[in-house]
Design a protein that fits this description.
Blueprint: H1 3-34, H2 37-63, H3 78-106, H4 113-134, H5 142-171, H6 175-203, H7 213-221, E1 228-238, E2 241-249, H8 256-269, E3 272-280
Parallel strand pairs: 2-3
Antiparallel strand pairs: 1-2
Helix pairs in contact: 1-2, 1-4, 2-3, 2-5, 2-6, 3-5, 3-6, 4-5, 5-6
Length: 291
């Protein structure tokens, strides 16, 4: 994420980080005082939110530095690395919560329902504010999307904690707390998997899922004067920044300038903002003749 959009989302991340970090401490204390696993689980998740938001903020800050030296693409990939770290943290939190839920179901402790409810309602308010701050940026940045998913999961987790607190306060049923805690852990897993899958695709330089590389190749070879297309590669540098390289074989007396312009236009239709197109004559394809 670059430019003015990056600056705007950086400001929102700072606000969300401050709110989430402050209330994570409140939930830790509330969970200990009330004996609630659901609150402690939500506090642990908010703790990963804090780290995730801090990583997202640092990634946007560093990604704004210009390319220099050996970093010919700058530091844009830090955004993707931050998303991967966020995903690993979320997997760890989910495992911890599920393990603690198992222990609590076998031996349910006493939980104070009313204080638990008060803390959970305040937590929901904080999560709603952070959710609204990050919702727009989640559509444009994988990094911000990671932080957004964490806050979304935490917001729904707070709703679950409220439900558990109401059940405990009105019925005294001790298993509600552990069940909600386990539900928070299970909710985290599929969303984290989706985030990690997207980030790994970028790290592995797999073509963006929305781009059909076979179709791109067919359109390029359909350009007037192009005899062959080879070494087509399309990948994502960071969210919203697609790159591509390709070799086009064009006769020596062909319209090289026209082919180059048309090829750039075609790649631009697929969102490629960093194309590298090599025009070469027949017989110059890796030292072999073109058939």
């Amino acid at each position: 994420m670059t430019g003015s959009a990056g600056a705007a989302y950086k400001k929102r991340l700072v606000i969300a980080l401050t709110l989430t970090g402050g209330f994570a401490l409140v939930e830790v204390v509330g969970g200990i005082v009330t004996g609630s696993l659901a609150l402690i689980s939500d506090a642990a998740h908010m703790g990963t939110d804090v780290l995730g938001l801090a990583l997202a903020l640092a990634a946007i800050q560093l990604a704004g530095k210009p390319a220099a030296g050996q970093r010919t693409y700058g530091t844009y990939r830090l955004e993707v690395l931050a998303a991967i770290i966020n995903g690993l943290l979320l997997f760890g939190v989910a495992g911890y919560v599920l393990y603690q839920a198992y222990l609590r179901i076998t031996e349910p402790p006493e939980v104070l329902g009313v204080p638990m409810l008060v803390v959970a309602v305040l937590g929901l308010a904080v999560n709603v504010i952070s959710f609204r701050l990050l919702s727009a940026g989640a559509k444009e940045s994988l990094n911000v999307r990671g932080a957004y998913l964490e806050v979304l999961a935490d917001m729904l987790g707070s709703i679950g904690v409220i439900v558990a607190a109401v059940v405990i306060a009105t019925t005294g049923w001790p298993y509600a707390d552990a069940i909600v805690g386990a539900g928070i852990g299970l909710f985290i897993l599929p969303r984290t998997y989706t985030l990690m899958k997207q980030a790994v695709r970028i790290i592995m330089e797999v073509s963006p899922p929305e781009i059909d590389t076979s179709e791109v190749q067919r359109r390029l070879i359909g350009i007037t004067g192009v005899q062959a297309v080879h070494d087509l590669h399309i990948w994502t540098i960071t969210s919203g920044m697609e790159a591509a390289t390709v070799h086009l074989v064009v006769p020596s007396d062909g319209d090289w300038h026209g082919v180059l312009d048309t090829a750039r236009d075609i790649l631009a239709e697929y969102g490629v903002t960093h194309p590298t197109i090599q025009i070469e004559p027949p017989g110059h394809v890796e030292g072999k003749s073109v058939v």
